[in-house]
Fold this sequence. Notes:
By secondary structure, this protein is mostly helical. Helix content is 81%, strand content 0%. The protein has one domain: Alpha Horseshoe (Serine Threonine Protein Phosphatase 5, Tetratricopeptide repeat), CATH 1.25.40. The two termini are 25 Å apart.
Amino acid sequence: MTDPNILGLGLLYVGAVLFVNALYILDYASPRDTAILNLFTGSLTFLNAIYLAFILESTFPAAQTLLFSFTYLWLFIVFWYEWTDMRALGWYCLFVAITAIPTGIYTYTIDNLEILGIIWQTWAYLWFIFFLYMALELKIKKITAWSTMAIAIITGIYAYYTLAITGAPI
């Protein structure tokens, strides 16, 4: 099982990076500015995964977390070097989307994680949209951006709620 504080901490920044990535897709953020938050979030979630795997010995949540880490670290490189060909990343997104579906179903069956199980399905949808947009190069820029924005907000609210009910008082 995962530590709810670790979950909330990572997901708060996942929500933030999704929000900024949506702004990038809509041409409201530069690649280099967008790269920084992808590096931070990818690194934070990577460290969370290491903690989960080697301290808490929770390899399944660690593997789930690494799906995010590698996505954001890859995006950091893409944005920092201003690569325009993101087809390989798009194919990785298909793998993650396929992985996220059973992850969401399984997570839904765990006590007190039903909402997270549903959110996993939204992430599966989003990674699939990224596959269509990047790997297949479909002209779905607006649906990709607004889907990313909506799921950023959902993720951020869930993360904040998770931290608020499990975190230490201020």
